[in-house]
Each structure stands twice: as structure tokens, then as C-alpha cells.
Amino acid sequence: MSALQAKDITVAFDKVRVLEDLNVEIPTGKITALVGGNGSGKTTLLRVLSRLLKPTGGTAYLDGNAIAHLPPREIARRLGILPQSPVAPEGMTVRELVAQGRYPYQTWYRQWSEEDEEMVQKALETTHLTELAERQVEHLSGGQRQRVWIAMALAQNTPILLLDEPTTYLDLAHQVEILDLLDELNAREGRTIVMVLHDLNQACRYAHHIVVLQKGTIVASGDPCEVITEELVRGAFGIECRLIADPLTGTPLCVPSMRRTNCDNCVMRTIPPKVSVS
């Protein structure tokens, strides 16, 4: 059984349904990407899975238990959550922010421990932030700040990580840096990772499992090589494309169609012949 599930989920805002009768199972120990056009319901689904949003109907489950019935501290020990565009308090250092990940383990009879210190240090090392530990978060680059937030989630030492658009507002180099880090965490530690991504090609390259949403429903899910087709991209994203095999990974690579221009300086390159991605 999957550690994280959603059954018959419906979410409505002002009687407008954002998700409708949605069912999904997140594979344990794999990277899952939630993709779809703007307004398709990706972030809403992630918020339901993390109990940040109560659904209008249906139930989300964590390890077979209805997540709505679990104590917040217990959820925080099993789910690490990175919301969209988080902001650190002014003046907080990298180490101080990462240490916030140990909050679920603090009680009146159990204060900061050697184990807490070890987990914070491990998170800093894993995300390559040791040398920046005493720097203020606000003075870091976008990619570095994202690594700090991921480090905080790692310090929670949860088997599941939920990330809402972890590469938003980052340049390409920092996007790859973050995605490579998540791929490394999954491969080395077997963590279940669920992330909302806008870039379909990155989702296909890094995810073992992909969930495609369109207008609040799931239109496809499974291995990217099996479910991503030109017809699916046309329906879910509203764009014509050619699918070819990624020359590095063999996963689907979406090349959007483009109209010819009248610009004399433009050099039109022909799209390579269609290649099977199976």
C-alpha cells in the first residue's frame, strides 16, 4: 500500500470546483511529479496531501490513516513540506532556519539534544551548506535559499518530502542544482518525494512517476515514458509538440511547435525526426 493516498477528493472555492472526485496513490520510495497547465489543480492537490488544505469531500491518507485525524506533530514527523516561495524571518541564519526542522521533536521534557544537533549538521552537509551556516538567509542567492529550505525539511528526518514548485524563480543552473539534489536524496536514502513542476521536460527527466492534471482531474499517471504522448500534451497543456527521446536519459523530451516568423535574422532549424521514447 502507498504511504500517501487521496481518495475521491473534491475541493471547491466559492462553489467552484478546483478538484473533482480525484484519486491518486503516491509510489513509496520514488520521485513523483505533479504537472499540468496553470489552474489545473497541482498545488491544491499537494496541499490536500500535506493537510494544509481540508478537502470539500474525500479523504487523504498517510500510512493508511486519514490524515485529518492525525495530530499535527505526528504528521510533521512523517511529512516534510516545502511551500511555494517561502520567506525566512529577517536576520535568521542558515543554521537557525535549518534547526526549525527539529521543532516536531521538541517537548517540555525533551529540549534540544545531541540527536537534534546531529540531524541539523547532516542536513547542512547533505545540501552543501556547511560553509554558509552562519550567513543570514536573506543574503543568499535564490538557489542557496532553496537549498536551505530543503535542508530544514531534511532536518525533520521525514520519509516523505512534499515540494511546491521548488525551482520557481531560479535560473537554469540553480534549477538543475536543486533537482539533482532531490534525485540524490531519493537514490541514496530512498525518500519519497512529491513535487509540483511547471517544466514538463524536467518532470520527465527526474520523476519515476508522473501525474498529469487537467481542470481538476487526473488525465494520466504512471511512468513518463509510458504516459506522456503528443496527444496528452495537446490536451493537458494546449500546445502542439513533437516528442523525441532525451539524448541523455532517453525520457520524453517535448519540443513545442512554433510558427515561422518573417524576421530575416531568424534561423529556422528543422525538428529532428520523431524518436520512440519507450
TrEMBL record:
<keyword id="KW-0472">Membrane</keyword>
<keyword id="KW-0813">Transport</keyword>
<feature type="domain" description="ABC transporter">
    <location>
        <begin position="4"/>
        <end position="240"/>
    </location>
</feature>
<dbReference type="GO" id="GO:0005524">
    <property type="term" value="F:ATP binding"/>
</dbReference>
<dbReference type="GO" id="GO:0006826">
    <property type="term" value="P:iron ion transport"/>
</dbReference>
<dbReference type="InterPro" id="IPR003593">
    <property type="entry name" value="AAA+_ATPase"/>
</dbReference>
<keyword id="KW-0408">Iron</keyword>
<protein>
    <submittedName>
        <fullName>Iron complex transport system ATP-binding protein</fullName>
    </submittedName>
</protein>
<dbReference type="Pfam" id="PF00005">
    <property type="entry name" value="ABC_tran"/>
</dbReference>
<keyword id="KW-0406">Ion transport</keyword>
<dbReference type="InterPro" id="IPR003439">
    <property type="entry name" value="ABC_transporter-like_ATP-bd"/>
</dbReference>
<dbReference type="GO" id="GO:0016887">
    <property type="term" value="F:ATP hydrolysis activity"/>
</dbReference>
<keyword id="KW-0547">Nucleotide-binding</keyword>
<dbReference type="InterPro" id="IPR027417">
    <property type="entry name" value="P-loop_NTPase"/>
</dbReference>
<dbReference type="GO" id="GO:0005886">
    <property type="term" value="C:plasma membrane"/>
</dbReference>
<keyword id="KW-0410">Iron transport</keyword>
<dbReference type="InterPro" id="IPR017871">
    <property type="entry name" value="ABC_transporter-like_CS"/>
</dbReference>
<keyword id="KW-0067">ATP-binding</keyword>
<keyword id="KW-1003">Cell membrane</keyword>
<dbReference type="InterPro" id="IPR051535">
    <property type="entry name" value="Siderophore_ABC-ATPase"/>
</dbReference>
